Queue: 4 jobs
Job 1
Amino acid sequence: MSSRTLFSEADHRYMARALQLAKRGLYTTDPNPRVGCVIVQQLPGQSGRIVGEGFHLRTGEPHAEIHALNAAGEHAKGATAYVTLEPCSHTGRTGPCAVALANAQVARVVVAMVDPNPQVSGRGIELLKAAGIEVDVGLLEADARALNPGFIARMQHKRPFVRLKMAMSLDGRTAMGSGESQWITGQEARCHVQRLRARSSAILSGVESIIMDDSRLTLRAEQLQLENAESVVLRQPLRVILDTRLRLPLAAACLSEPGRTLVMTTPAHSPEKRAKLTAAGAEVHVFEAGSDGRLPLNELLDWLAKHEQVNELLVETGATLAGALLDAKLVDELQLFVAPTLLGGEAKPLFALPGLSRMADQRRLKIHDIRAVGSDWRIIATPQPD
Ligand code: AOF
Ligand code: ZN
């Protein structure tokens, strides 16, 4: 939502601070959004003073505004609250923050973005206005949206934000002809991938890559290099494996790791294997295959949003599934790690996109960021609409 309000330099500074606070919940709020709040007291003739700060830490715990109000106490009266997401108007796991702000008699609320949650979506702002509070919306909105791409996608489109991570050599290869692929990128790039896993609700992979790499698809806290490691309780992202005929080995490493493993299959599987996989800890779900005999990717993503509240979905897989997702236009963001090495020979290419044959078919990407990560390069790109 855009706003015609002219925000002051101080407004920008305080909202930037609120965004910074929100980021502290990056790895823990899921499936709730990351939200930060700053309360500023403005005394006549003096510059503003922060009297309360807060951020949302975990689902079920108080919202950012409540922490900030508690810290501000009496000083909240007549103050300005900066919130990265519209204060809520509903009573969910916690009470409505818009009511708490009104009760504390703040004079003004600055909101970075309207809450995409249909239970809120403008009602929080209305509630504040009805209480006589001045409300300004849209300050640093792009930054606020970037904090919660998954929550926004799930609320607005009922599907996760799909981030495809791939690692390739400078000659565009992801594995040797034999399938051997560990390791193409260096340690620092692998730390980045750990951070991508940590912010994701789930990791999606194809059974072929699991068979090939026997990857655990887990979060290793020590590799995250967190500053506040002791105060962050990490959850393991859900592992989701696409496996049309249940070929997942019973001894697959990911099955004995902490956290849940969902195996998505079609009716073309053997019931005995299903029973064995279930006994080994997998949760097997059956989807009707499409006309090509493959799992219906669209439906699967909708299912993950609806049944598992998946906000950000990290895809770590091989050329076939990566190509199929791109082909179906289901990728929201591509993170590509490029290593300074050549694999040559019969090595595997990045994507299988067999349907593209003419220049007119090419898939255009927009590059948003390129930076060095250790000795590798990271490219962040988004597929462009036709
Ligand atoms: C948060 N943290 O700081 C704010 C949120 O289930 P509940 O009761 O915690 O409510 C979650 C909803 O509250 C969430 O979907 C969003 O719409 C709204 N605002 N949520 O988790 C916060 N301010
Ligand atoms: Zn709230």
Job 2
Amino acid sequence: TLRPFPKDFLWGAATSAYQVEGAAQLEGKKLSQQDVINRRPGVADAEVASDHYHRYKEDVALMKELGLRSYRFSLAWARIFPDGVGDPNPQGVQFYHHLLDELQKAGITPIVTLYHYDMPLALVEKYDGWIDRQSVADFAYYTEFVLREYGSKVKYWLTINEQSIIVQYWTKKNLIPEKYLDDPQVRYQINHHMNLAHATACKLVHQLVPGGMVGAAINTAPIYPLTSTPCDVMAAQNALDVRNLFYLDVYFKGQYNKAAFIYLEEMGVAPKIEPGDLELFREGYSDFLALNYYSSDCAKFPPPDAQRTESGVNYTGKKGEIDSYETMPDFFQIVRNPNCDTTDWDWAIDPTGLECLLRDIYTRYGKPLMITENGLGFFDKLEDDGTVHDDYRIDYLRSHIRAVQRAMHYGVEVLSYNPWSFMDLLSTENGYQKRYGFVYVDRGEEDLRTLDRIKKDSYYWYQQVIASGGQK
Ligand code: BGP
């Protein structure tokens, strides 16, 4: 039998600012990069999202009733500093105080992300955002203010959400200005600036928040060789270095993964490193790693003529749409895992992969881990009687919770589990068609939406899970 979860385990749930708040241009907030993305027709925008900005009290009451011990959310930089730097926006600053106070009254531990894809538009217009090294100093300015303001209310800080996404989906996620899309080095330079920003924020947390703990939130997946041929095994090792350790070695060893860096240099895309950068990496060490886990990957050795390609995105929710995954010439090609079922959006469902990943990362770096995203996107159906029967989501989460428990049984230190997402929110590619929440948000058609909150079956199930300490 598996050892039970510790009594103080933080059972939580997650969201991010632009995906739930709405109020994109209200009460002093100015636009962020996310607010101006040209979303495909029919996909909701961030203007209203789930209207959490106005309904946070109701939402925190629902969290309390659910029994949450932690809540992972992000601050909207452009709500606090509408122009990215300069004068703070008092109403925006107050909003997060109110939210944090409400959470505190409900006995819920906040886990706060500083940056979740939403660069203030002012900085994108001024110098193209993360492409310019000035972004590191501006992020530090924002971070220092935030830590002085909320440091006494927040112990757990997450720096940057999923910086690898920019590198792996460079044309797809609308995060790089168009004029740079053909320059492959830019993606690695942005990533380097994010590493510097991350390290600076870690240092600041250590300086300004007594007892504070800080880490990055990264999307990582275990990478299996497609077959047991030595060249596929080699390709899986190459992919591990480039897709995972290239990020994690910076957080925990203060250096770039050697194999990945040499390969990128040979490709002519390695980032420019200035004197002192690597020292900063080492000074800005992480206390833990936050993992966003949805699925696992498979790798094979690419054919000799293969070109560099980014990963595909399934936009429709019709299984089987994705046939292109990231390819690195002469190094690896990511392919579909023939042994795993997938979600409607072609994401492999693999709870065992989560256990593998947790054990592997903990063995490598020996630092505590937390899960800050994990969940199943689905076309949920609101029944006429106001219920949502999402047993598929319950199955998904139950098997992943068991994987976390198994990893902990074998010695991995996991602090917290925060499924994506607490409530339905603006999915990055599919708006409200692809839902993840325990709480359904009625977005209806434009003029029909009530924005009512409706508890899904998974809400009642997770309530039992938490109440029973993870035994259900
Ligand atoms: C992660 C992001 C989240 C969230 C999630 C689900 O990469 O950190 O912001 O959106 O993925 O992705 P999607 O909305 O595309 O289904």
Job 3
Amino acid sequence: MRIDVVTIFPEFFQVLDVSLLGKARQRELVDARVHHLRDWTSDVHGTVDDAPFGGGAGMVMKPDVWGRALDDVLETGAHLVLPSPAGVPFTQAMAAELATEPQLVFACGRYEGIDARVPQHYADAGFRVSEVSLGDYVLNGGEVAAYAMIEAITRLLPGFMGNAQSIVEESHSDGLLEYPSYTRPASWRGLEVPDVLLSGHHGKVAQWRHEQQLERTRERRPDLLPPEA
Ligand code: ADE
């Protein structure tokens, strides 16, 4: 999979070199490229933003600069992703969908966002375009959100994970939160591992884990459960 990131903070994405994602890049499972938006500016100051039409606080990122950058970076069939607190919520299902795309281009906005004609233009031009929010809070820009999405997406690529079963069993893959996990020692600071996990009875373990998933989800994320009949 090809991933391009356009940002005014390319150094932030040194994070792409480390951990499992770094290894996936070495193995050429992921071809990730980071671009400095200012390379597409046309004035000596490298201006990327301007005051909003209609007034108000903050600055808006200029469509002409973004247009030149994205014209160069987007290839046929690419999916353009704009992290934004005003986007649709990012979910595990969306991560799975995006993991099937040939090229993802993340356009990281700062300040009050990118001129709204930019996503409109590329959607009109036939690209898939998604404005996506990491959650109901505001970050300083799209960089952290883009990295979180890249991590959630790339770990779903075939061959990325050593243990494919751990993807099948984790939180959200079946719409529920994951069950609690324990390892040795069986007794720690007066706290005991639930007996059923030491029983060696696979059927009972599976049933207990499913009950724990339901209980956790009811307590922490009731919004994930279907409405009761
Ligand atoms: N940029 C700023 N806040 C954001 C959020 N919550 N999600 C995605 N991008 C953002």
Job 4
Amino acid sequence: MISLNIEKTLGFISREKVFAYEPLVKEAQNALEKGTGKGNDFLGWLHLPSSITQEHLEDIKATAQVLRENCEVVIVAGIGGSYLGARAVIEALSNSFTWLQDKKSAPSIIYAGHNIGEDYLYELTHFLQDKKFGVINISKSGTTTETALAFRILKKQCEDQRGKEMAQKVIVAITDASKGAARVTADKEGYKSFIIPDNVGGRFSVLTPVGLLPIAVAGFNIDKLVAGAREAEKACGADVPFAENPAAIYAATRNELYKSGKKIEILVNFNPKLHYVSEWWKQLYGESEGKENKGIFPAAVDFSTDLHSMGQWIQEGERTIFETVISVEKTNHTVLVPSDEANLDGLNFLAGKRVDEVNKMAELGTQLAHVDGGVPNMRLCIADLSEQTIGELLYFFEVACGISGYLLGVNPFNQPGVEAYKKNMFALLNKPGYEEESKAIQSRL
Ligand code: PA5
């Protein structure tokens, strides 16, 4: 199971102050368990791992199999919580070079509907021209412009290219039970569809079909992912004593650091496969906590790559940051540094060592340097990169986010601020129903 080490924050905040959060954390946990806190209609994720039935998992796997048998490429159309969880898991577990190989054991997963880039869509539709492709259309509201726009284009292309009957087989919708355009289209076209429960918000939905279906299509074991999340549900439960509960300690420590003036949390990894786990985490914490003019700003870096860019800022820039490092104990493969008689590069001191040993020393050296430079450092250890450990990590972050949001005093389950840009965009595009806003915005230009 995940372990959290906060020792290297204790030169900046005291253990006593962190442990003083115990009653507040208890209160937050009770509010989550009893549904008495803010946003309590969105708590379906809290005991989701233990309530997922095998029948549901089999349904997802059977649907994934249809896509795997009929598609070379599957497009996951979604934005925010409707794609980041799937991408985080798929990229963490995939071979970094599979996408370049000709023979693949699973369809390639490509993402769309998470931007409005015309060139992106042009290049995507061209890439798909000679491909047998399918689409998983994911939108809880069913009305998100980015996703709906991409889906309109992809649906037409899929029908034109593969015929209406095959398109019906290889397009799957994951959306609300009854509301929204995605539901209307799915029902009218007869697509296989899955429901996103009302009480699970987008960024907490990775363990619903939103995440599980794309992950299963990519060939990963969703039983093990859910098993990992179940382990974390136990280890981070409200009945686990504060001192032994990594989610409680993480939530308390980051809030105490925030109070002490550390306004930015940088999630660090030393494994490039975790890049999208960080993207998912940024969304989870940014959208959950950044409101009412408060909230830790969630940032992320991939080390050692970014030590040669952001490393300078982290070491010597404004002292308003702290780091949370995801440390992966064991790699899945072994590469030894070869010995070289000529030793022209002077690297023989590393000969015979594992590359991961070098990486681990980079990690340790960086931790010590950053702490010396005034950056508190938490270390979150996972055993390896596997379905089980990623499942643990995702649930750990979710429950810690719920607790942390309540400690901060905000509703971690809404996102009112996301509407502001949409209102302006619709007004500028003269969307029906936005006539007043259109007039008002035009006068500002
Ligand atoms: O966490 C959230 O609720 C958001 O990030 C949503 O997932 C995102 O805005 C996409 O919404 P929808 O699934 O309704 O298209």
